[in-house]
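Lab notebook, bench 4. Still working through the backlog of constructs that have no structural model yet. Next entry is a single chain of 283 residues. Request: give me the structure tokens for it.
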Amino acid sequence: MDAQQLLERQSFTELDARSRAKKLLDEGTFTELLDPFERVTSPWLARQNIVTQSDDGAVVAKGTIDGQPAVVLGIDGGFQGGSMGEVSAAKIAGSLELAAEDNRNGIPTRAVILFETGGVRLQEANLGLAGIADIHAAIVDLRRYQPVIGITAGPIGCYGGMSIAAGLCSYLIGTREARLGLNGPAVIEQEAGIAEFDSRDRPMIWSFTGCEQRYRTGLIDVFTADDADAIRAAVIDLLRAGRPEACRSERVAGFLKRLSEIDTSAQATPQQAAAIYGKGFES
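Model written out:
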């Protein structure tokens, strides 16, 4: 990318969740469901003296992508770290369920999920976990009919139960700024010690869980610049490619085989992980 292209490109990461959804949908087709004016907020945060947000940090946008029906589900990383509570999870799960129902009725609705989330909202505990489980089930249902594409683009990344949701998607797109992992750096350090994972060592963290490394290890499908047009183009390409022969979550034997090659007695390195995972994951 030359200097002029760098100046002209629009950062996807710098857009909020609503603007990201608008950018992905075909121009003029954006319609938001349960928008902020509906005032559907978390009933639990206010009881804990926590300021609520009128969309509970989840944007549900319906329209078309490449001329075909689509729903874009955006998670607002600026509200409670993009964490999932009862309402935000229900908005996402319910939208995916309706998209699957569309397909059963002959309407080929596909879905894009914008992951900017640390996982479950601790203040809502089991309610958030149950909501995330509903999201998992809805992704698996919808991906039988149409590709479900996940995107993680910003510095919050995608962690916790929502990283499992990302792993269930048909395809994943990531940028250099983003990370993807089950447990966050601070959690790993707390449980295993600083010698295992130093949560203050940003280069080390990105070398293991950054999307560039995740691309090398086959855990995401497209690694792209933080460019809104490039990300939209990647989404369209993946939708045109259709459903993959096997999603990552269906390649259990392949993943178990690769995990068995890891020497847990020695400190892992990004290079070793890339070498082992780079061999592929046959079903």
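Notes after review: The mean pLDDT is 94. Residues 11-180+220-250 form a domain with the 2-enoyl-CoA Hydratase; Chain A, domain 1 fold (CATH 3.90.226.10). Flag for follow-up if needed.
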